[in-house]
Amino acid sequence: MLRRELVVAAAQLAAAGMSPGSSGNLSVRHDDRIIISPTGSDLGSLDPDRLSVLDFDATLLSGPAPSKEYPFHRAFYRRDETLRAVVHVHSLAASACSCLDPWSQRSAIPPLTPYFVMRVGQTPLIPYADPGDPAQADAIQASRSRFRAALLQNHGAITAGRTVREALEAVVELEHTCSLLLQLGSRPFQLLPPEAADRLAKKYDSHWG
């Protein structure tokens, strides 16, 4: 079931153009195992019987070699035991925003819409590291901020959720909000009132503030 959900979500991201070429990776957590897309795989053509299965010590238990970006998937699972899925993409708008100065230390993206706060929440910019470098995972795991999404500097986006659907919806909403921010450019814009952002975060169990 989890394997099928991962494959379906990956195909949706590929069809939406959010995972060009062999970029991006997805994982699900099942007990003390992490099932993740293999290295160099096309997210539009994953096989549920050909996924990589690892333990939390990075030992490959079955399947082909995993994505080299496995460490930051594990970092999210270690941060929050309720999380069951992680999605990483190199989508255009999120990748562009990852190259900009962050809006604030706690969130690279400001609260532009209620849906961003509801589905994504605060999204810090994680300092640059080469793809697969465990330093990026270490920064995610060590952060004391509350978040289920992040922009990886000069790289892309990563979201986590308590279900595959939640992680998928978050990364789609994050891409939409990043696109909106780029469309606004240097023009003055309104943010959600702070009390509205706090209210929505509490109602939808999102991390903000």
UniProtKB/TrEMBL annotation:
Keywords: Lyase, Metal-binding. Residues 4-182 form the Class II aldolase/adducin N-terminal domain. It comes from the Bacteria. SUPFAM superfamilies: AraD/HMP-PK domain-like (SSF53639). It holds the Pfam family Aldolase_II. InterPro entries: Aldolase_class_II_sugar_metab, Aldolase_II/adducin_N, Aldolase_II/adducin_N_sf. Gene3D superfamilies: Class II aldolase/adducin N-terminal domain. PANTHER family: 3-OXO-TETRONATE 4-PHOSPHATE DECARBOXYLASE-RELATED (PTHR22789:SF0), FUCULOSE PHOSPHATE ALDOLASE (PTHR22789). This is Class II aldolase/adducin family protein. It comes from Pseudonocardia alaniniphila.
